[in-house]
Amino acid sequence: MKKLVVSLSMIMMISLAILLVGCGSSSDEDGDSSAVKELRFSSMAVEGDLAYDICQGICDEINEKSDTMHVTFYPADQLGDFSTVFPELMNGTIDFAECSFPDTYDPMTTCALLPYLVTNYDDLVKVLDPDGFIYKTTGEACEKLGVDFLGANVDGLTGVATSKPIINELDPNKDKGVVIRTSSTKVFKMSAECLGFRCSELPYSEVFSSMQSGVVDGCIAAPPAATYTDLGDAFTYWYEYKMVPEMTGLLASHKVMETLTEEEQAIVKEAFYNGSLKSYEGSKAHNEEYLQIMKDKGYTVTEFTDEQLEVFAKNARENWWPKLVDTFGQDFFDQLNEELDRLGI
């Protein structure tokens, strides 16, 4: 009798276990079908940057239009700087990002950063047209790396911020008497070297403290608005050299995009497109506003005439671009020059 009781007890326990497993499976399936995909968006921008508002807007648009996706915004390199975020996009461990392009994997991703590709905002919009050579070349290079180039964030044209005045400001072939920070990206560093600056490679996160402590005298980092927002207390002189287009990518991990439904992909792409459009439309006015803020607050601001900027550009294109043929290839420069001729740049 005891054996029978034990046997009946065991049968009931096994049956209960099977029932619970069955119920659990049904619950998991129901949960999967209704689960919200939690996605992360990394950005270099800090609050006050136009890029910050654009990236926040992209996240908000996706969250408002989708019941199956939720994007959390991580500004100010909270998830790491571009050198760590970009490979995480490649691996699918970060979903979306606004960041610079490292030249570690394919230097062609940095082709938009050529020194003096343009010298004004009207030409900047032309050369970064989504149907243009530079935009398409950047996108193709990203695609090969498993990163979807969903738009360009056009920050503006970069200048130089320093804690003391420079010398020989109009002669690109003479030393400027200061050491400035650049990133390790080859073309970005060259944009400072082609004007006669001595450079020190530093992570962007170290720029503020390095300028305040005198490790470097200044930096080439960003256009007026972002530089003032990030480094306003570390510099007193601004030189509007406009030497390099500051374009960051609005990027998605291809691995992640493949996990989204067609409807979700469409929502993401539309949000990124809208964000990119806002950067094209707002970049010039935003930077002019902050240039005026610098003047009003007593910063020494040096601007250059169109003729002076053309001298800098001629020097960069004739004497420094040839040094990048080994990096980008002669065919790239042949096509680029055709594009610039077509655009009248």
How does this model look, in words?
The protein has 345 residues and is α/β, with parallel strands linked by helices. The protein has a single domain (36-343), classed as D-Maltodextrin-Binding Protein, domain 2. The chain contains 13 helices and 11 strands. It has helices at 2-34, 50-65, 82-91, 121-127, 133-144, 186-193, 207-213, 224-231, 254-259, 262-296, 306-320, 325-328, 330-343, and strands spanning 37-43, 69-74, 96-99, 147-157, 160-162, 179-182, 198-201, 218-220, 237-240, 245-253, 300-303. Strand 1, helix 2 (50-65) and strand 2 (69-74) form a beta-alpha-beta unit.
Would you spell out the secondary-structure blueprint of this structure?
Layout: H1 2-34, E1 37-43, H2 50-65, E2 69-74, H3 82-91, E3 96-99, H4 121-127, H5 133-144, E4 147-157, E5 160-162, E6 179-182, H6 186-193, E7 198-201, H7 207-213, E8 218-220, H8 224-231, E9 237-240, E10 245-253, H9 254-259, H10 262-296, E11 300-303, H11 306-320, H12 325-328, H13 330-343
Helix pairs in contact: 2-10, 8-10
